[in-house]
Amino acid sequence: MFIAIAQLMVVLDATIVNIALPSAQQDLGISDGNRQWVVTAYALAFGGLLLFGGRIADLWGRKRAFVLGLGGFAAASALGGAATNEAMMFGARALQGVFGALLAPAALSLLAVMFTDGKERAKAFGIYGAIAGGGGAVGLILGGFLTEYLDWRWTFFVNIPFAVVAAAGAYFVVREPEGGRNRSPLDVPGVVLSTLGLVALVYGFTRAESDGWSDSVTVGMFVASAVLLVAFVLTEAKVKAPLLPLRVVTERNRGGIYLSLGLAIIAMFGLFLFLTYYLQIVKGYSPVRTGFAFLPMIAGMITGSTQIGTRLMTRVAPRLLMGPGFLVAALGMLLLTRMEIDSSYTALLLPAMLLLGLGMGTAFMPAMSLATQGVEPRDSGVASAMVNTSQQVGGAIGTALLNTIAASATTSYVADHIGGATSRSQQQLVQLQAQVEGYTSAIWFAVGILVVAAAIALTLVNAGRPGGTAVASSSDETAGEEVAVPVVVH
């Protein structure tokens, strides 16, 4: 439970601040040009340091890293809530990212090493998968409520009680198994190359969203990222104690998990963005009402993860949950391509969000569990960090790529139709219709991305068949045995 609270806090933070951003910008006098750094400072620190954070958890111990990450995240949140100028705000967000990068892989790796029994593991990862998938939508609700009825500063202060409860619970209750630490010397070149490479990649996508894909700095960031990450892989293949042992990512099942999860997150982040804009700008919903409109998706995710995924994980191969799960989510996305200005929430958005939630929850749960199964305990931190890295990079790509597609479709629609609008009301109608056209064009791409994610899951992930072996371990030890759960007919 305490690990789940901590994970919820980290996932919430990715969206809760977005709702509060307009109010914070006005209070602190942040310029339009600089406001993106409230989001970007967090994303760069979090995405860039995840692998390092996972390795620190393996080195220091997951429980110690977990508690330290919670304490630092709470302190950074207090600093953000008390911010008096933009520099203080940007610094607080960067610090949240730093401690989040320590906290997130420590939380997932604690689950991986603590829950080895098939049924208990299924329950634990069912809850974790629901939070990983639905926490962002919960952030929209909480952010809207706090901003509208209290003050934007509470979107930061709310993290403090979460962190205190989770840290106290972890300190007194969580018992990390002995002998799972990786005490090898730290791979400093790997840390530097991976951090700079991931920061350049995330910043490239962030900049592409605001400055365009052909911007010289955007292109430079992508080139630098490619060079740094290739150098990182070459370094990891040669050093004795690599930051990210290549055996963790080259194993077929884990590679398939990281890739399909990253793609699914691309689609999800784009959807959160477009539905939020659609409900508030086109339909005129308040922030709180917009947040509550996402409740069916959260309910679907919780059901898919804790009921469908948890009950079936010990009975069927993970790919038979992941593949169909992504396809059900794609069906929900497909419904949203029919959005119009006057679309009914009950008739269109509600069933679409239920399908999305059910599909994503069902797929996320076995994916989160499988990504850390069969890994040597000393590698569980970096294996967990790779899950978070694929999600973080996927989120950055989703926001930038799908937003670009939507903006292009919107501009094209306006150019083709604005000439026939003679009155001001007709012009406003064209503008609204153009926005909806942009959203649906981007959602079509999201449908395709989810279908590809399903295909990857069905073809690459071949572990966990009932009575067989699961993910191949990174050693020849019996790590795989913990996952092979035979079906027992009573």
**CATH class division of the largest domain:** Mainly Alpha
Put simply, the count of helices is 17
The strand count comes to 0
Compute the CA-based radius of gyration: 22 Å
Q: Give the overall shape, derived from the CA principal axes.
A: globular
Percent helix: over 70%
- How much of the residues is beta strand, in percent? under 5%
Mean pLDDT: 80
Structural class: mainly alpha
Please tell me the CATH architecture of the largest domain by its name: Up-down Bundle
Low-confidence stretches: 465-490
SSE string, helices as H and strands as E:
HHHHHHHHHHHHHHHHH
How is the biggest beta sheet arranged?
Answer: none
Could you tell me how far the N terminus lies from the C terminus, measured between alpha carbons in angstroms? 31 Å
At CATH level 3, the topology of the largest domain is Growth Hormone, Chain: A
Question: CATH homologous superfamily of the largest domain - what is it?
Answer: MFS general substrate transporter like domains
Q: In the residues, how many domains can be counted?
A: 3
Domain Major facilitator superfamily (MFS) profile: 1-465
Pfam family, one: MFS_1
Membrane topology: Multi-pass membrane protein
Protein name: EmrB/QacA subfamily drug resistance transporter
